[in-house]
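Deliverable D2.4 — example input (structure tokens):
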């Protein structure tokens, strides 16, 4: 009877693992999300990995660039201090945000710059909607998706919206008399000691549905500067399905490590031997 119960529990466990692995992830900016709002394509093409921002001070600035994309949870003092150390060691950090918690990070780093939080609209220069405006990176065009703008007067502007753009403050879809007109900065470069912080007022520029539009891929390569990207995954609002998938994958990666494989190879023969001994004893008692 016990063997049947154990077999049933094993089947249930295997079913839960299978469901966790195949259940579709639709979280914004998730590296596991293959749909329009995910980052699966970026992670695959650029060999990106997730990073807990609190560990940014352990990252090699000569090999990696840190990206913070659409943060939606607050930054701790440890997060900010760790990132500051990375920057002061000559690292490059990219903050791509629009209506998230990016201003918290800028304030914590004491950078006199902020995301305005007003929706950028361009009724003429866009890719199908005023809220999908084109910005100019030199002579090249980059496509934005429900972006905001930057208050920047001290730093080098990397990209800006067109003269036809405006801030749709009341989001009524039309330009009202009191709403400012462009061009507006949408990407700036902030020197930070020997490091540099690039701030972009659009969190969607790297998602699956936008990464190939206009010159977005070239702009991404400029941001990465030939280094391997580490994406801060510790400030996303993750669904339970995503958390379960991440936990399972981390467990599987752990089990595949050489140390665990070596220990398992040494342990299994002893476990089998003990089971056989116990089985013989049980038969002897009968």
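Example output (designed residues):
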């Amino acid at each position: 009877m016990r063997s049947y119960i154990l077999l049933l529990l094993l089947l249930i466990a295997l079913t839960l693992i299978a469901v966790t692995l195949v259940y579709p992830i639709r979280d914004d900016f998730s590296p596991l999300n293959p749909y329009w709002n995910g980052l699966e394509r970026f992670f695959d093409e650029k060999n990106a990995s997730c990073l807990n921002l609190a560990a940014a001070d352990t990252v090699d600035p000569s090999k990696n660039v840190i990206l913070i994309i659409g943060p939606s949870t607050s930054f701790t003092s440890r997060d900010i201090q760790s990132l500051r150390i990375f920057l002061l060691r000559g690292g490059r950090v990219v903050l791509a945000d629009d209506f998230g918690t990016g201003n918290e990070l800028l304030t914590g780093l004491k950078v006199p710059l902020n995301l305005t939080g007003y929706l950028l609209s361009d009724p003429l220069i866009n890719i199908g909607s005023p809220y999908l405006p084109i910005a100019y990176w030199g002579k090249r065009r980059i496509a934005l998706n429900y972006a905001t703008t930057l208050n920047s007067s001290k730093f080098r502007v990397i990209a800006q919206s067109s003269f036809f753009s405006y801030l749709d403050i009341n989001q009524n879809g039309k330009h009202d008399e009191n709403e400012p007109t462009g061009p507006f900065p949408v990407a700036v470069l902030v020197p930070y000691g020997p490091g540099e912080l690039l701030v972009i007022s659009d969190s969607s520029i790297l998602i699956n549905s936008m990464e190939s539009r206009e010159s977005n891929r070239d702009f991404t390569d400029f941001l990465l500067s030939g280094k391997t990207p580490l994406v801060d995954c510790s400030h996303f609002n993750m669904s339970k399905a995503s958390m379960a998938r991440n936990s399972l994958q981390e467990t599987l990666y752990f089990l595949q490590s050489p140390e665990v494989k070596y220990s398992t190879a040494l342990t299994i023969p002893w476990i089998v031997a003990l089971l056989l001994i116990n089985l013989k004893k049980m038969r002897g008692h009968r």
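The mean pLDDT is 85.
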